[in-house]
Amino acid sequence: IRGTLKSWTKLWCVLKPGVLLIYKTNKNGQWVGTVLLNACELIERPSKKDGFCFKLFHPLEQSIWAVK
């Protein structure tokens, strides 16, 4: 999940009420991370390359960027 904007890592995410589960692949396996959504702020930003992307901002100053 961590990295610079120049080194994207493709991950499979499942949205459930209040939580985003993160997997390495779309196969049924062990999740590698979670994001508690009630603690995050969603910020939409236009992307120069693909149109749009969004940022989840957590109060502990850790951000997650994702392409829509």
Report on this model:
The protein has 68 residues and is mainly β. The protein has a single domain (12-67), classed as PH-domain like, CATH 2.30.29.30. Helices cover 0% and strands 49% of the residues. The chain has a three-stranded antiparallel β-sheet with strand order 1-2-3, with no helix packed on it. The chain has a three-stranded antiparallel β-sheet with strand order 4-5-6, with no helix packed on it.
Quick structural summary:
This protein has 68 residues and is mainly beta. The chain has strands at 12-16, 19-23, 33-36, 41-47, 51-57, 63-67.
User: What is the terminal separation in angstroms?
Assistant: 16 Å
Order of helices and strands: EEEEEE
Structural class determined from secondary elements = mainly beta
What is the CATH superfamily label? Answer: Pleckstrin-homology domain (PH domain)/Phosphotyrosine-binding domain (PTB)
| Major β-sheet strand ordering | 1-2-3
Largest sheet: 3 strands, antiparallel
* Rg over CA atoms: 12 Å
**Secondary structure: helix percent:** under 10%
The proportion of strand residues reads over 45%
* Uncertain runs: none
Kindly report the average pLDDT value. Answer: 74
CATH architecture heading: Roll
- The CATH first-level class comes to Mainly Beta
Number of DSSP-assigned strands? 6
Tally of helical runs:
0
The CATH topology name reads PH-domain like
Number of domains: 1
The shape, in one word, is globular
